[in-house]
UniProtKB/TrEMBL annotation:
Residues 43-182 form the Cyclin-D1-binding protein 1-like N-terminal domain. Residues 196-218 are annotated as: Disordered. It holds the Pfam family GCIP_N. GO terms for cellular component: nucleus. It comes from Coptis chinensis. Residues 196-206 have a biased composition (Basic and acidic residues). This is Cyclin-D1-binding protein 1-like N-terminal domain-containing protein.
């Protein structure tokens, strides 16, 4: 009897899942601008309903004595709410830019994915005597619903949050670039030399079992010149990002490639992007003096970095630079 019930619930769940996945794909497209925008408060209210439904589902599915019909009815009600959540979320994207639309879609999709994981596991566990893992799975749905409520609701907020996250990554890049050390025969920075010597002394007393996997971060004089130019270059990017946080409808997501050819291509693309952002910023009715200065400083750093990358010494450093790791 339990085997037949599980088979029925599996077919039912697949049918609902296929429908919800089609809805997700459909709602990836931007809604028509002529539609009325759905207030975000309606999405929040529906998220609360989904959270409550997950609680009810958790209580029903953890009891081995719950009738099959009750479980199927709960599943039907649950998916209707998920469909409603997707529909309302899609309606709030009227007039939204790509960044805001992406945030809204990702938040709603997360609620759906957590719900599907919960229900799949519940169906798989049907007929089992051990169902204590069901309530915690419902808890993941609650968390996703709470996270959805924190989704940005305006283009400015969405872009600002994205740029802030990019700024944190860029700051990490600058810090790690500054931590790169010159080789023992490089007099670029005496303090860095002393740190490198101390670290070498410390490592000589440690376990060397993994030494072959440690690529090290000592740089030759030529590599150090490029690294110093990169510090200036990325620092100026950070200044631009900070200024962009104050300007609506602008944003960038940057990362440092490690091959010289890729750096050259990326630097050209970044330069074009900054030029485009500056041109677009001029159309906005906001003060852009500091932003313009940041762009000018960035241009100087970029030209210096490109000059270093174009030197014969830099071309010979490709194998060495490919061994450097800068984590984000």
């Amino acid at each position: 009897m339990a085997k037949a019930g599980k088979k029925y619930l599996t077919r039912t769940l697949k049918s609902y899942t296929d429908g919800i996945q089609e809805t997700i794909q459909l709602f990836q497209e931007a809604p028509a601008s002529t539609l009325d925008k759905v207030p975000w408060e309606q999405v929040v209210a529906m998220a609360d309903q989904v959270s409550k439904q997950a609680t009810i589902a958790g209580l029903l599915w953890k009891e081995a004595t719950t009738e099959l019909q009750a479980l199927e009815e709960n599943m039907s009600a649950y998916f209707k709410m998920l469909q409603g959540l997707l529909l309302l979320s899609h309606g709030t994207k009227v007039g939204a830019g790509p960044t805001l639309s992406s945030c809204i879609h990702a938040s709603a999709k997360k609620v759906v994915e957590c719900s599907l994981t919960f229900l799949r596991e519940a169906v798989l566990s049907y007929g089992s005597r051990s169902l204590t893992h069901i309530p915690p799975l419902a808890g993941t749905v609650w968390e996703a619903c709470e996270s959805l409520k924190k989704t940005p609701t305006t283009n400015y907020t969405a872009i600002g949050r994205g740029i802030t996250q990019a700024a944190v990554s860029v700051k990490d890049v600058v810090r790690e670039l500054k931590d790169l050390k010159p080789g023992n025969n490089d007099p670029v920075d005496d303090a860095l030399d002393r740190d490198a010597a101390a670290e070498t002394s410390h490592e000589s007393h440690s376990n060397h079992s993994s030494s072959e996997d440690d690529l090290g971060d000592d740089l030759s004089p030529e590599e150090m010149i490029i690294a110093q130019s990169a510090v200036s270059f990325v620092s100026d990017i950070l200044v631009i990002i900070k200024e962009l946080i104050q300007v609506d409808n602008l944003g960038a997501c940057l990362y440092p490639p490690q091959e010289l050819t890729s750096i050259k291509v990326a630097s050209d693309n970044i330069s074009s992007a900054v030029t485009g952002m500056k041109a677009e910023a001029l159309t906005l009715e906001v003060s852009l003096e500091r932003f313009s200065h940041a762009c000018e400083d960035f241009g100087k750093s970029l030209r210096k970095l490109q000059s270093e990358l174009g030197s014969p010494d830099a071309t010979e450093l490709v194998p060495g630079l490919q061994n450097l790791t800068v984590s984000m």
